[in-house]
Amino acid sequence: MDRIIEPELMDDPEQGKAYALADFSGPNTQFLNLFADKFTDFVGGGKVLDLGCGPADILIRFVDRYPDCECIGIDGAEAMLAPGRKEIVRKNFDHCIHLRCQCLPVAKEGNTFKAIISNSLLHHLHHPRDLWQTINECADPGTAIMIMDLFRPESTARARAIVDTYAADESPVLQQDFYNSLLAAFRVSEVREQLAEAGLSLQCEKVSDRHLLVWGRREG
Question: Which domains does the chain have, with CATH numbers?
Answer without folding.
Answer: 13-148+187-217 (3.40.50.150)
